[in-house]
Amino acid sequence: MTEAVFQRCIHPHCGATLGVDETTFACPRCGGLLDVAYDWPRLHPPRMLRDFESKWADRHNPLNFSGVWRFRELLPFAPPEQVLTIGEGQTILQKADSVASYVGVQPGKLFLQYEGLNPSGSFKDNGMTAAFTHARMVGARRAACASTGNTSASLAVFCSATGLMRAIIFIGSGKISYGKLAQALDHGALTVQIAGDFDDAMQRVQQVSRRLGIYLVNSINPFRLEGQKTVMYRVLEALRWEAPDWVVVPGGNLGNVSAFGKAFMELTELGLLQRLPRLAVINAAGANTFFKLFGQANLRWEGGKPDKRSIEDYYCKLDAEKIRASTIASAIEINRPVNLPKALRALDGCGGVVHEVSDQEILDAKAKVGAGGLGCEPASAASVAGARKLRQEGIIAAEDRVVCILTGHALKDPTATVAYHTTDQKTFEEVLGTRGVRRATYANRAVQVPNDLDEIIKAIELYS
Ligand SMILES: *Cc1c(COP(=O)(O)O)cnc(C)c1O
Ligand SMILES: [Zn+2]
Fold first, then answer.
1. How many domains does the chain have?
2. Which residues does residue 172 pair with via DSSP β-bridges, in sequence order?
3. What is the pLDDT of residues 195-206, one digit of tens each?
4. Whole-model pTM?
5. What is the per-residue pLDDT for 339?
6. What's phi and psi for 294, nearest 5 deg?
């Protein structure tokens, strides 16, 4: 290979390589996933992570303003003049002591990485700016995704903000939250609602994209994951370039954990980071393929040869028993995670673990996150619920420094939030009861008062 940037099959024993402008996103030899690969010595990688701080002073340059592209030396696949940015990645790492106490770690040791601050309200924008940039490099006119909501919202925003491409989104007929659907419609995406769930939509979008030559922006796209690596760079930066003990992230299609793992492997390879964090992936109990396979069936990366049979057998069993993913955390309501092998590699490299949490645990944790200052959607709170569980089981220690990724903004799914806090038992039952949520332990109920000044004053004095 003479190019300094190329695509490469993730399985070392295959090792097939492709040019950077290929858009099939599958290994032509073995069908496996692809990485964006770099011949680092030819690409002038940074010598110290601290060098990135100098870019703060040059925020008039959109590439330095972007929380993704100011790290461009660590994802050097695009010529700077081709980069499409809408100011993504302006996110914060916030210390949250009330959440620390809920999780069971010492004060000052728990941090929330708030990706809800992105332009479309979720971490997906980190990946979309990278995929979108690649789409422009290859001259795409149309871009498509299957989505539980946030990928489509992000794609719709990028298409409408730049006017460069037509967004085509596939959603299942069931659950997409209004916050996310609203964005797809408002930003003018062609929205195709198919009769099926996310896993069906995912299969179809791949077939359709191949047939019509439409650029695919799901996380099977390795360029998207390049952008998502930067979430970890920002976490490290906020911690003055010292890795935490744990990074806890919700697992859906497992793109994030795969990107995080790649980021840390590369930083190690480049000699930029001495100590790595451990990664913890949290599934919803109603969509727990990764937990079942990694946590219970001991599926491992095995140097690039994970046991394919056990994965296929598991999916056959899901089909035979007609098991569908089902959780209030719609963003991770996925039973066939497309990045499964990459996620295995990430956990192998970072001493990772997988756990699962119930919808009850997710909503309780979400209420604690909200009361602690940052609003998130249900899927995001799985990270906090999972950290608490890992702490209870002694896997995370009380003195460990823990970063939980809040993947999406609270306003993405107001229905779940209002149902949890509502005084109306019927609403609670209708929205949450079917998901096995029985209690709202941390509910902040509205106070009912007659329309009478004295009564109103009395109620305020009583409750405040
Ligand atoms: C997409 C999404 C996830 C799942 O991330 P994966 O990379 O697919 O595992 C989790 N939370 C939110 C809010 C999301 O939008
Ligand atoms: Zn291959």
1. 1
2. 194
3. 888 888 888 999
4. 0.97
5. 97
6. -85, -50
